[in-house]
Write a structure and sequence with these properties.
mainly alpha, AGR_C_984p-like, about 280 residues, two-stranded antiparallel sheet, single chain
């Protein structure tokens, strides 16, 4: 039986508890039989050079590999994965750059084939296996509390998005292109959902302004500083909790309105429409 993460509290208190117990919980989770079987299978398959076609035809191996890079659920996209692995071999290809997806870029560069084979060093195999265990643990956390999973993803992934040497504009575009990272920033900065409808340059300008006004960030490289990461995630947890409470309260208020007006002439259809309008 796989160990289930312990999350006794929601919001900031729960996040603080998870951070304090993260290492011990991850270690216990990683030793779960199902996780160990997947890791052993992965290591066995990559113990020698593996043909790309053999990788693509093995759904279990694709699942473990993609999960390690935060791409769980993407393993069915065999043709797309093939294209990714082909493009990364071409030094003139701009496909991954245009894709603007850090997770797929990391996946492609880590498994980059040569002459039709994926050849991983033992240290690379160990690193990917450890990433698989950590990502699987985050998925298990997310099954109980999605805000906690998003926070873990941000904590571990922000440095991969905010890379040294990248221009401020390039980093802003990466932040906007990473859905999990953006979800945290949107909540922490109070960014309205309809911002996504604007031109990407306008979105980047707005994000930059909000980072400066909310966290005093004048250079986006500061986003990966531990103190800034901590500040962002604290604010995210607080606001995520408020949003969840507000949503629950709104739904409850709608139900009370329905009950209070049931005898005052609300018909069945009208009552249903009012109830559904809260969702």
């Amino acid at each position: 039986m796989t160990f289930q993460p312990v999350l006794p509290l929601p919001g900031l208190a729960g996040w603080n508890f998870l951070q304090e117990t993260y290492d011990s919980q991850l270690d216990t989770y990683s030793k779960s039989p199902s996780i160990q079987r997947d890791i052993e299978y992965f290591k066995e398959k990559f113990a020698q050079p593996l043909a790309v076609e053999d990788f693509l035809s093995d759904p279990r191996l694709r699942r473990v590999s993609l999960t390690a890079f935060g791409l769980n659920g993407e393993e069915w996209k065999t043709g797309y994965i093939r294209n990714i692995l082909e493009e990364v071999q071409d030094p003139e290809s701009t496909f991954l750059q245009r894709l603007n997806n850090t997770q797929y870029t990391n996946f492609a560069e880590s498994l980059e084939p040569a002459n039709g084979f994926i050849n991983l060093l033992s240290s690379e195999i160990d690193t990917i296996a450890a990433r698989f265990a950590a990502e699987s643990f985050e998925l298990a956390v997310g099954s109980q509390n999605d805000s906690m999973r998003l926070a873990l993803n941000y904590r571990d992934g922000i440095s991969e998005v905010v890379t040294e040497g990248s221009t401020g504009e390039a980093v802003l575009f990466k932040l906007l292109g990473s859905e999990p990272i953006r979800a945290v920033l949107d909540t922490a900065l109070g960014i309205p959902a309809d911002l996504a409808q604007l031109d990407i340059d306008r979105q980047a300008e707005y994000l930059e302004d909000r980072l400066k006004s909310q966290f005093g960030i004048s250079n986006v490289q500061e986003l990966k500083d531990p103190e800034v990461v901590d500040a962002v995630l604290k604010r995210f947890q607080i606001l995520a909790g408020i949003n969840q409470n507000f949503a629950a309260t709104s739904s409850a208020s709608t139900a009370l309105v329905l009950l209070g007006n049931a005898a005052a002439g609300f018909g069945a259809v009208a009552s249903q429409n009012l109830f559904l309008s809260g969702f």
